Amino acid sequence: MKVDTCKNLLLQYIKNPEDAELNYSMGVFYEDNGHTASAVSYYLRTAERTNDTLLQYECLLRAAICFRKQGCRNYTVKGLMQHAVSLEPKRPEGYFLLSRHYESTKEWSESYMIASIGDKLAKFGQKPLRTWVEYPSGDYGILFQKAVSSWWCGLCDESRNIFMTLKDKYTMEEQYEKAVENNLKKLYSE
Fold first, then answer.
1. For 9-62, what is each residue's pLDDT tens digit?
2. Between the CA of residue 37 and those of 7, 19, 49, 76, 87, what are the distances in Å?
3. Are 151 and 187 in contact (CB under 8 A)?
């Protein structure tokens, strides 16, 4: 099946390499098969060839995720995510991913700042993206990032309060429920 899908996509692409939808499909196909370098080129080609800002946004996030998986591309990852946020500033995924990126590089103030901005600007319940971009299901992802980063910025009471709010008022995926519980245990033991 993979060979037939690949062959079909390639034949369509050869006939029309400027088609944004075909470039997007090629990117998804290569990423799904673990070829992130190839996927990035198609995602970027899609973003350059479409006027659909939501598709551009998703492709920039997908490209950033691919680069992150490759490692050693922190500035590229950050730049792609920042560009995505600038295209769709009311969507939550970019804020979450960018805050998480800053967390991974221990840039706590930046992580907190972008989570705080996202907390104010992001609107939930929007049209879903075509693919999963590592954003947790629901509307708690940005708040979770704000709770984590606020602790590292010395905003301990804010961190505790946000984690308590998450625990008491949100239904979360299991990994986030466990993270909230673990963080609360740690925060109340210190």
1. 989 999 999 999 999 999 999 999 999 999 999 999 999 999 999 999 999 999
2. 19, 20, 19, 13, 23
3. yes
Alpha-carbon gap, residue 7 to 83, rounded angstroms:
33
Task: Give me Rg for the CA atoms of the chain.
Answer: 18
**18 three-state secondary structure:** coil
The answer for residues whose C-beta is within 8 angstroms of residue 112's C-beta and 6 or more apart is: 99, 146, 149, 150, 152, 153, 155
| Residue showing tokens 């519980």 | 181
Q: Is residue 6 part of a domain?
A: yes
Residues 127 and 36 in one domain: no
Q: Which residue type is seen at 178?
A: K
Tell me the residue range of the domain where 158 lies. 73-189
Q: Which amino acid is at 2?
A: K
Q: Is residue 84 part of a domain?
A: yes
Q: What is the pLDDT of residues 111-152, one digit of tens each?
A: 999 999 999 999 999 999 999 999 998 999 999 999 999 999
Model pTM score: 0.94
Q: Which residues contact 135 (CB under 8 A, 6 or more apart)?
A: 92, 93, 96, 97, 141
Residues 127 and 182 in one domain: yes
62 domain-assigned: no
Joined together, the tokens standing for residue 132 give 């999963």
Distance in angstroms (rounded) separating the CA atoms of residues 175 and 183: 12
Q: Locate 169 and state its tokens.
A: 């008022």
